[in-house]
Specification:
The structure holds 2 protein chains of 2 kinds.
Chain A (H helix, E strand, L loop, with lengths): L1 H32 L4 H7 L15 H9 L2 H32 L5 H10 L5 H12 L3 E6 L2 E6 L6 H4 L6 H12 L4 H8 L4 H9 L4 H17 L2 H6 L8 H4 L10 H32 L5
Antiparallel strand pairs in A: 1-2
Chain B lengths: L23 H6 L7 H33 L18 H7 L2 H31 L7 H13 L2 H11 L5 H9 L13 H29 L3 H9 L4 H12 L1 H16 L3 H6 L11 H11 L3 H25 L5
Helix pairs in contact in B: 2-14, 4-8, 4-11, 5-8, 8-11, 11-14, 13-14
Classes of the chains: A mainly alpha, B mainly alpha.
Chain lengths: ~290, ~325
Amino acid sequence: MKNQLLLKSAGTMLVRILFAVVAAFPIVFMLVSSLKPDQQIFGDMSSLAAFLPVGNISFDNYAAVFDRVPAARFLLNSVGVSAVTVILGIFVNSLCAFALSRMQVRGKKIVFTAILATLIVPFQTLALPLVWWVNQLPYFELNGFSLEFSKGWLDTYQVQIIPFIANAFSIYLFHQYFESIPKELDEAARIDGAGWFKIYRQVVMPLSGPATATVAILTFLPAWNSYLWPLMVVQSEELRPVMIGIQYFFQLNVSWGEVMAYASVITVPVVVLFIAFQRSFVNSIASSGVKG
Amino acid sequence: MATVPLPTRPRPAAPEPALPPSDAKSKARRAHRRPGFRREQLSGWGMIAPAALLLLAFIFIPAILGFGLAFTNARLISPRPVEFVGVENFARLFSDPTFYRALLNVAYFTVIVVPVQSGLALVMALLINKKFRGVNFFRTVYFLPVVTSMVVVSLLWLFMYRKDGLINEILSAVSFGLIDGPDWLGDPNTAMPAIIILSIWQAAGFHMIIWLAGLQGISGELYEASQLDGTSRWQQFRYVTWPGLFHTRSLVLVTITIQALGLFDQISVMTQGGPMDSTTTIIYEAVQSGYRQQETSYASAISLVFFVLVLIVSAVQRYLTREKD
């Protein structure tokens, strides 16, 4: 009986490891290949050496990437755009969810339903009318001391940020989480003379770490990974994000070692960030009840 | 038993019980309905407004615009004024053989990806649901492909799918040289299966997290009770886990399906719809005409058809997975 149980759990562990190998092997292959010259990548392909940093190992590919592509600039753009989107997104969406879940605002049910309805519209169907629409929007630029006015948001930073701040799924996640925090806290704070914004800032938000982490990851991932949108709306090189940099490697006679190095450069920061937030991310999705 | 009236939630506008008389400030305001009522409305709307206005500006307005533009001749940058052209765009679309090919490809992709990916994601969630040594390691590894961008994934697999690439080398090694793999992306017969494999690999981890959330919502007492009854693992899954995942199931199905129908990034990086239109999709066609050829109106028409398709499919799914009692 005991042996049988042991055998069963060993079998389960084997399956777990098998899935882990399948999930990880392309990424390991990418990281390892980024350290090898092309000749060695192809030479190692038929053996386990493809997944091991052996042979002619160096960071030459990384140096070449920063030489060939304005990678540093792309990285800076992506960090900036994603950071601003995440910070504003957390603020705007949690504020809205706070009012919807903890205050008695007239008509909030209709507003909440309308917000959730936006979840049905896939971004791909909006993308093209949205390009046309942002091109009609006004644009203000401070030039010295005079405010200059022009039309069209194409080729700017704000076109990469502002349309993605408000997000129905983030509002939903915050809303679910806020519902689980006792309302008595608000009343106690109100008796102490706190205003609603103070309750939001000093009572509810400090208790919502896991929800904030989840929204941060779920906002950061698409912001960092976005490809279709910047491809359509950003032309100038100095405004482009990292994913577009990949296009520089589409030409013929590409060095695969360099491609793998660039791919690693734009992947590793996300992986590190994810591992850092991993625990509260999984916990909060589990506890906020994504139950449809 | 005497019937006791159920306590009902007070209506929002109903007056609340009086506050302690020491609170002089609110006493003065009580004359207007309820203490703080007006202020609560104002600050409430002030807090809702930023998100609501942004959603209005960047989802509702473009959605309505897209609907309208589909019936015009709008181009992204054009000196001509926008004119109403009726169903001209749709007539052109429905007489285009590439469009039907795209529909067929997307159907093929969706029919395979939805069951296989959701099934694998559920198996993964079951494997890491219980606490054991190294559970966090496995959760992280299973989620790794999700944090890797689809563009990077596509580029990586583009390399692995070559005739002399990693996939064929692995196939040859495990079959002791018997299998001589195809040129995956260059052959119209294998291009879509190749795209399907990498798509499942990349996204299964995301749906695993949703399944995991559902699994953790099932009460542990149910498992204890079933263990006392001496059920097998399969019976436990069949009678406790599966019914307990009811709501999660429909959520996973709807999200996978919508994502599958919107297939784009992989195609754009790896095949550009080829070879011989074997991997072209609806969104790929829309972006091609809307972005590369700047025909906003035609692209809007394709998007509108796509949106209707998504609505129909999710309505059918909702119907099929409805609660039957």
